[in-house]
């Protein structure tokens, strides 16, 4: 009963009109020949794969879930998943943005970002199987030895093998300094790794002949805490020198987690019993290497909620146009019917427009950040690479936390549009709500992202990264502030920019006296800065739409209405957030623990 249509028109608008991706790519030697026609053709075919192959498996996969054979420790995903993965590999999709040296197609990360948004809309649980492979690829591409790269990267790039990240243990989640998994050096230069990991997404399945686990563990003489963590490659099956699969390694799935959502993805408890591993990077420097994969995963999780926001919105709109309920307060609209479609009711429209604005704002921010990543990796000028790296670092926690918070709100709103039917599985909406909830938790909870933004990315460098992004906003405000038709967008954007500057300075001063002030303000602060980024992109999109009003294309009319809704109904949330951030830590910490 659910439906999904890839939002190709809006993706094209963001890539070609908002970001002018063609001009940017011409400055990046590996992508200088990638033109708009190529990008559009790739995304059109990617949309077909998402809508026609993956989407039909989403509802049934959620109902069926994964099955663990406790004797063999093998996990079977839902019906159709293995066949869909084979089509994914056959189509060359795993290699889309990977290095041609290892069999990749070498397309920009920005193209892969849009492709994965569509995959997440179609089937988030399925998409997590190949999605984590990208993170494993990035980590090994950045920190692997030439031998490790030659052995593993072609298999990950082709999709012949998949990858995972094994961090969390039963007694520790984000605080990886507490992990206990041990790595014992062997005479041949390998390591024997023993321990237990939990919450390992796609940790075991039968869709590929081998799974490459990236595992954090401690060497015998490792320093305490996070400075004593090393990273290891631990394949499900040992790999022979010629790249063929060898004997079964000592790592297996001990149990599947029983979860609220993403039922079709195998979330595993992984047991390592003397598993053979090889060191990635330097001893005790594993966290730095794993951060490559973690940052990729954080951008990916934001993209998961962006995908869910889009598909939930599409289904809620279709339902609201069809469902008859009551008459409009201003008088009947569908006079030939016994009641009006619920889309005539103001609060239904508010819920729909909220989801639409979160999807369109999120798409703009996510694509912009992916393009900065392409610049960081490929621009010939070192200063340009450094500036793009700073901006990507600043925006990564915002994408992870702001987009997933918004996804939770949007899917919940869209389920509400369905009324009682939204609570019923066959309509698909309650699954989107359940699936969206995990995105706020894993890959670093949204509170952790908020602390990262405020404490590390903003106060940690005295606001350097934030000021650089703020200059882009200020330049746009100065350029467009003279236009009368832009005042409704420019004035609130400029006002919020000033307030963010003042709020940042105020929190920074208070934190010097009491570091807990950062913890009390961080979540509200991230959401304020998230709105600042959305306001900037919606103002830019509104300018483009205003300039195209005479084209007769209803796309621009809708874009302008969405921007106006965002500024009128969603951006004002920042007033409350700034006030609660300024309330400080006292109301949170004053009460004695015994009184809780």
Automatic annotation (TrEMBL):
<dbReference type="Pfam" id="PF02771">
    <property type="entry name" value="Acyl-CoA_dh_N"/>
</dbReference>
<feature type="domain" description="Acetyl-CoA dehydrogenase-like C-terminal">
    <location>
        <begin position="471"/>
        <end position="592"/>
    </location>
</feature>
<dbReference type="Pfam" id="PF12806">
    <property type="entry name" value="Acyl-CoA_dh_C"/>
</dbReference>
<dbReference type="InterPro" id="IPR036250">
    <property type="entry name" value="AcylCo_DH-like_C"/>
</dbReference>
<dbReference type="Pfam" id="PF02770">
    <property type="entry name" value="Acyl-CoA_dh_M"/>
</dbReference>
<dbReference type="InterPro" id="IPR046373">
    <property type="entry name" value="Acyl-CoA_Oxase/DH_mid-dom_sf"/>
</dbReference>
<dbReference type="InterPro" id="IPR013786">
    <property type="entry name" value="AcylCoA_DH/ox_N"/>
</dbReference>
<feature type="domain" description="Acyl-CoA dehydrogenase/oxidase C-terminal">
    <location>
        <begin position="284"/>
        <end position="451"/>
    </location>
</feature>
<comment type="similarity">
    <text>Belongs to the acyl-CoA dehydrogenase family.</text>
</comment>
<keyword id="KW-0274">FAD</keyword>
<dbReference type="InterPro" id="IPR009075">
    <property type="entry name" value="AcylCo_DH/oxidase_C"/>
</dbReference>
<dbReference type="GO" id="GO:0050660">
    <property type="term" value="F:flavin adenine dinucleotide binding"/>
</dbReference>
<keyword id="KW-0560">Oxidoreductase</keyword>
<dbReference type="InterPro" id="IPR052166">
    <property type="entry name" value="Diverse_Acyl-CoA_DH"/>
</dbReference>
<dbReference type="GO" id="GO:0016627">
    <property type="term" value="F:oxidoreductase activity, acting on the CH-CH group of donors"/>
</dbReference>
<dbReference type="InterPro" id="IPR037069">
    <property type="entry name" value="AcylCoA_DH/ox_N_sf"/>
</dbReference>
<keyword id="KW-0285">Flavoprotein</keyword>
<dbReference type="InterPro" id="IPR009100">
    <property type="entry name" value="AcylCoA_DH/oxidase_NM_dom_sf"/>
</dbReference>
<dbReference type="InterPro" id="IPR006091">
    <property type="entry name" value="Acyl-CoA_Oxase/DH_mid-dom"/>
</dbReference>
<dbReference type="InterPro" id="IPR025878">
    <property type="entry name" value="Acyl-CoA_dh-like_C_dom"/>
</dbReference>
<comment type="function">
    <text>Involved in the assimilation of dimethylsulphoniopropionate (DMSP), an important compound in the fixation of carbon in marine phytoplankton, by mediating the conversion of 3-(methylthio)propanoyl-CoA (MMPA-CoA) to 3-(methylthio)acryloyl-CoA (MTA-CoA).</text>
</comment>
<dbReference type="Pfam" id="PF00441">
    <property type="entry name" value="Acyl-CoA_dh_1"/>
</dbReference>
<feature type="domain" description="Acyl-CoA oxidase/dehydrogenase middle">
    <location>
        <begin position="165"/>
        <end position="273"/>
    </location>
</feature>
<protein>
    <recommendedName>
        <fullName>3-methylmercaptopropionyl-CoA dehydrogenase</fullName>
        <ecNumber>1.3.99.41</ecNumber>
    </recommendedName>
</protein>
<feature type="domain" description="Acyl-CoA dehydrogenase/oxidase N-terminal">
    <location>
        <begin position="82"/>
        <end position="160"/>
    </location>
</feature>
